[in-house]
Amino acid sequence: MRRQFSLLAIATLAAPLPGLAQTVTAAPDVAPASGLVIRASPRIDPSLWFADGDYPLAAMRAEQEGHAGVLLDIASDGRVDACTQLSSEYEWLGRASCRILIRRARFTPALGRDRKPAPDRWNVSIDWKLPPFPPRREDPTVHHGVYGDVPVIATEHLSAPEALGDPDLWLQPADYPPELLKRGGKIEVTLKVAKNGLVRSCRIDVSSSVRRWDRQVCALLRRRARFQPEKQAEEKWRSNEWWHRYSWGPATAQ
């Protein structure tokens, strides 16, 4: 079954998830280590290793898009032992690719002739595309007043930070503790956003009931969440707070 999965991976892993800013293509290195009878294979779809929130801020500000090709050295425990940049149109994109892959990529180890786990190598190609700016959303607030002798109800639109890309992709299936995925749950967070689009602080409004996961969610969102800078918005923010609910269950891991 492992051999079959590896062969399928070469053909199918090039397809990106809807809304992702990165297209990921992954395949075993054409020059494997000698003595392997089964190649290493990703534990999850490699497109899930990346999210819109991963886009390097420096590259985003410079509006840099491009290709990055890297070679992964996979240890016998399935973790990435080293990442070598083979090609990159921009330094930021190559460095970000290796940093993310070392942290997130996990493999079912290769097997040698003795049927014991063995090191292997995989080539990964990432096409970085700037995430699209989503349609502007506004929160209406109703104000009651009097104009002359006539009562009026006026609607004022309060502008708030706009997420870059799909916020649901800022938390990936590999991030969730297995025990939480089995029983399902939700968490509600409020982020305070700086004028440059980075997260200043994270507040848990509705806890997942697992304090360790609450802290992890905030840590991940501080690293990955990106917003359109205020100076690029059509008007100044009336509030720098952004709220979101994350829900999960067994289907999240699929």
From TrEMBL:
It is a single-pass membrane protein. GO terms for cellular component: membrane. Pfam families: TonB_C. It is found in: Membrane. Residues 1-21 form the signal peptide. GO terms for biological process: transmembrane transport. Keywords: Membrane, Signal, Transmembrane, Transmembrane helix. Coiled coil: none annotated. InterPro entries: TonB/TolA_C (IPR006260), TonB_C (IPR037682). It comes from the Bacteria. Residues 54-130, 175-235 form the TonB C-terminal domain. NCBIfam families: tonB_Cterm. This is TonB family protein.
